[in-house]
Design a protein that fits this description.
Strand content: 15-25%
Radius of gyration: 24 Å
Number of helices: 2
Largest sheet: 3 strands, antiparallel
Number of strands: 5
Bound molecules: zinc ion
Structural class: alpha+beta
Oligomer: single chain
Distance between the termini: 44 Å
Strand order of the largest sheet: 2-1-3
């Protein structure tokens, strides 16, 4: 179950919990929380750096070779050619 972080949209009107932000474990099927469960003030979802998958760039042939991989490319005759 993913954990979402929420923080008050208007910290002037919000309670102590959502003023500094809180985490909530919610099923992914549930709609996003829009109001603080305590003070009912509007909250916004924070993008957590921990839950976001890191975007990795595709491995290029030269990257793979420098990492010690042997790259084989399938030739049109069905054999594999070592690059
Ligand atoms: Zn609140």
């Amino acid at each position: 179950m993913p954990i979402y972080s929420y923080i008050a949209q208007d910290s002037e009107k919000s309670c102590a919990a959502c003023r500094r932000g809180f985490d909530l474990r919610r099923p992914i099927s549930r709609p996003a929380l829009e109001n603080c469960p305590l003070c009912k003030q509007p909250v916004k979802k924070l993008i957590s750096g921990f839950n976001t998958p890191k975007v990795t760039k595709p491995l290029s042939v030269s990257d793979a070779k420098s990492a010690g991989f042997t790259i084989l490319e399938k030739r049109c005759d069905g054999n594999y050619e070592k690059l």
